[in-house]
Amino acid sequence: MYTIQREQWVPRPLEDVFAFFSDAANLEVLTPAWLKFKILTPTPIDVSAGTHIRYRLSWHGVPLRWTTEITGWNPPHEFQDIQLSGPYKLWHHTHRFRARDGGTELSDKVEYVLPFGFLGRIAHALQVRRNVAQIFDYRYDRIQQMFGGPARPSPSRAR
d(Cα 39, Cα 66) in Å, to the nearest integer? Predict the structure, then answer.
C-alpha cells in the first residue's frame, strides 16, 4: 500500500473552505488539465454518505472511468471517499478540515494500491508515484491561488 499526505493552511473560515470542497463540481478545478478530468454524474450533486460520483479521465492517453463513493460525511470537519471502480485496486481518500489560527487547515491522506502485483509496483516506481504527487502539488497550488496562504513547500513524494 502507498500513501500520500498533504497539509495546507488557508486564511479562510472553515465553513467557506468546506463548502467549496463539498461541491463535487469543484474537483475539476483542482485537477490538472493533462488528466482531461470530467465529472459524468449530473450536477449539482447532493454530497452525503453513500453518494456515488462518476468521472472520466485520461492517463497518458489511456481513457479511464472512475466511480467513487462518499463513505464518511462529517461537515464541516471531514469526509472520505473510496474508489468503487477505476484504475486502482484500492483508493481511500480522507479529507480533513480544522479551524486554526484564524483560517482553515486542510489535510489529505490517500492510501492506494495498484493492480497487477509486481508490474503495478514497477509502474508505481517508474511513473505513478510521480503522477500522484504532481496531482496533489497542482491541487495545493490551485487552493493557494484561490484561498491564499503560504506557497507550497519543496516537493514531496508519495511513499
Answer: 9
Pick the closest to residue 146 from 6, 30, 28 (CA basis).
30
The grid coordinates of residue 96 equal: 480533513
Q: Half-sphere exposure of residue 48, counting CA atoms within 13 Å on the CB side?
A: 1
Spacing of C-alpha 29 from chain mean position? 11
CB 77 within 8 A of CB 98: yes
Q: Please write the tens of the pLDDT for every residue from 57-96.
A: 999 899 999 999 999 999 999 999 999 999 999 999 999 9
User: Residue 144 — left, alpha, or beta (φ > 0 → left; ψ -120 to 50 → alpha)?
Assistant: alpha
2-147 has which CATH code?
Answer: 3.30.530.20
- CA-to-CA separations, 48 to 45, 57, 75, 112, in angstroms, rounded: 9, 23, 9, 22
> What single DSSP character describes residue 64?
E
What cell was used for 1?
A: 500500500
